[in-house]
Amino acid sequence: MQSNSNIVDTLNVPQKQVMTVDVEDYFHVSAFENNIQKSDWKNLELRVEKNTFRLLELFAEKNAKCTFFTLGWVAERCPELIKAIVNEGHELASHGYAHQRATEMNPQQFKDDVAKSKQLLEDAAGQAIIGYRAPSFSFNDTNTWVYQILADLGFEYSSSTYPIEHDLYGVPEWPRFIYNRPEGISEIPVPTVRKNEQNTGIGGGGYFRLYPYWLSKKRINNYLANEQQPYSFYFHPWEIDPDQPRITSASMKSKLRHYINLSRMEGKVARLLEDYQWDTMKSVYLGK
């Protein structure tokens, strides 16, 4: 017999989870920034449009809605993709313009980058952009000034923090769940599980490609039951593209992280879409 406490827990589990895609190409990722110059981006094969259209097909098949955190650089080159995202009822949000980490910009550079992205996306979509995600989750104790700039530019929420220990990013002491900043911005951290006073990421990306699907699903279910908070998932269009060009000059660690299990990712995402109900960030977290 199920205990009363378990019944209460089940009733309080959020029914809708949040699907997000960071719309960038394989050559935009921070792991390859020392191997590929920004000036070379225009000369490389553009694969993000085809891959993202494939995701739109997959989401339509599974009746899922998603928030697409999109680079302004991509919006400039793929206006039909931007229109399709909006026309199919998904949320369009900003991932900045040129995939530059917030920790590498001063306040004016950050404002210019985000404002340019927001304008490009709004012009292409014909609607206001209220969400932002920093490349590589690059908000931390050194640059909390970013939130005032986001508020000044008209954003309502950010999903730019990952409260884990990581060699490239992470703010393990920051909040694990959505909270309101004094600047008027809601911050929505990437989900983590907490054990022995340590956080472990379960929000997607490389972790999801690395682990078998049953284990990822078990971790998600435990999170929902124990935390009773909406679960949000993130990944990238290049993660369903096993045929993408290989960056042979990258470090072994970067290549392992980037290329592991690419051929299995689309199938695992399809299972994830079937096993849970998915909606946008602004719908689930902001009620819009």
Summary keywords:
11 helices, alpha/beta, 288 residues, disordered N terminus, 11 strands, single chain, 5-stranded parallel β-sheet
How would you sum up this structure, described in words?
There is one protein chain. By secondary structure, the chain is an alpha/beta fold. It is 39% helix and 14% strand. It has eleven helices and eleven strands. The strands form three sheets. Strands 1, 2, 3, 10 and 11 form a five-stranded parallel sheet that branches. It has a four-stranded mixed sheet with strand order 4-5-7-6, with no helix packed on it. The longest helix has 19 residues. The chain is globular and about 45 Å long. The N and C termini lie far apart (39 Å).
Give the rounded overall mean pLDDT. Answer: 93
Main beta sheet: strand number and arrangement?
5 strands, parallel
What level of helicity do the residues show? Answer: 25-40%
Pairing-aware structural class of the strands and helices? alpha/beta
3D shape: globular
**Poorly predicted runs:** 1-9
Cα radius of gyration in angstroms: 18 Å
**Total strands:** 11
Strand content: 5-15%
Note the total helix count.
11
Order of helices and strands: HEHEHHEHEHEEEEEHHEHHEH
Terminal Cα span? 39 Å
Can you lay out the helices and strands and say which pair or pack?
Layout: H1 4-12, E1 16-23, H2 48-62, E2 67-70, H3 72-77, H4 79-87, E3 91-94, H5 107-125, E4 131-132, H6 146-152, E5 157-158, E6 179-180, E7 186-187, E8 192-195, E9 198-201, H7 206-210, H8 213-227, E10 232-235, H9 252-259, H10 262-275, E11 277-279, H11 281-284
Parallel strand pairs: 1-2, 1-10, 1-11, 2-3, 4-5, 5-7
Antiparallel strand pairs: 6-7, 8-9
